[in-house]
Specification:
The protein is an alpha/beta fold and about 325 residues long. It is built from 13 helices and 9 strands.
């Protein structure tokens, strides 16, 4: 559906999506479907080829031309910092929305930099897989000055279907995302260890997932991750093991900076990092579940049979 505000203006706004990995690719196509004039940017020829049939693409931000907004989907804080500083120094782009998982200090500094130029920087990390990003239905945790968030709202609405929440000043979105991700990391570790009890006893993966999914022990790990990416063996969430390990570590580092003692989360971060000898950096993060399951000594796999028969593992 085309954004009504764009139709009223008559001329599509031109939005750059910088970083055309799985999530950036999906967001670029979603913005295109909603009536924005989109240009994608990524140094990878493969990443550009995935979207060039629908939108304009370029290999370098110096080739973006005039854009009304830039949506960043980048690996980390260093890339966010260098990209935003280039946009601040070398372009007239008035609005930068960073959907990456970055560092709150970086976001605060960039928001202050852009404010001095009478421009806007928003940290708006997203939660949800590539399919939700393609549909414009991801969730977003937003950090920024209130008046800046108002400026970013139309693009945030297009990216999330309105499922975004202003958490506070610059950096607040990043902090919320780190809290979210370290909780996901914790839930997946707990699921693996708890399910090992049932599987070793002889209970079926399907029955466990269905039963716990309707009871007080449920979580997104049980309701979403298990059926969507783990027990069917797809492991295609588009979020890498190395990124989850990084985020769990960043969350505990932030806790230490705040003078907090978080022994459970510290152990979770340690356990995720301990899988480095088992999983490759780009492996899907959900592969941690069978890896953690194996560490328990459980001899049963945490997936359905090929035909999905109930009561089997």
């Amino acid at each position: 559906m085309v954004d009504p505000s764009i139709q009223e203006r008559g001329v599509p706004e031109r939005v750059a999506v910088v970083g055309l990995g799985a999530m950036g690719h999906a967001m670029a196509l979603n913005l295109h479907d909603r009536g924005y004039s989109v240009i994608g940017c990524d140094p990878s020829p493969l990443a550009r080829s995935n979207v060039e049939h629908c939108i304009d693409v370029c290999p370098d931000i110096s080739e973006l031309g005039t854009v009304n907004a830039a949506v960043l989907s980048l690996p980390g804080a260093d890339e966010v910092d260098s990209t935003t500083r280039w946009l601040a120094d070398e372009s007239d782009c008035p609005l930068v929305i960073d959907t990456s998982t970055s560092h709150p200090t970086t976001s605060r500094e960039l928001a202050q930099l852009m404010r001095k130029l009478s421009r806007v920087f928003i940290d708006a990390p997203i939660s949800g897989g590539k399919s939700l990003a393609r549909e414009g239905l991801v969730s977003s945790f937003v950090g920024g000055y209130p008046e800046d968030v108002v400026v970013a709202a139309p693009v945030l609405d297009a990216l999330t279907g309105g499922k975004w929440r202003h958490m506070g000043g610059p950096g607040s979105g990043n902090v919320t995302k780190l809290i979210n991700n370290v909780m996901v990391a914790t839930h997946l570790l707990v699921v693996a260890e708890a399910f090992s009890i049932g599987l070793e006893y002889g209970l079926g993966t399907h029955d466990l997932t269905e039963a716990i999914g309707t009871a007080s022990g449920r979580s997104a790990a049980v309701e979403v991750n298990l059926p969507r990416w783990i027990i069917n063996g797809s492991y295609d969430s588009a979020f890498a093991y190395s990124l989850m390990t990084r985020d769990a570590s960043l969350a505990t580092d932030l806790a230490a900076d705040l003078g907090l003692s978080v022994p459970v989360l510290t152990e979770v971060a340690k356990r995720w990092k301990g899988l480095e000898t088992t999983l490759a950096p780009n492996d899907d993060f959900n592969l941690a579940v069978p890896a953690f399951l194996s560490e328990t000594g459980c001899g049963q796999p945490i997936r359905y049979s090929i035909d999905g028969e109930r009561g089997t593992t």
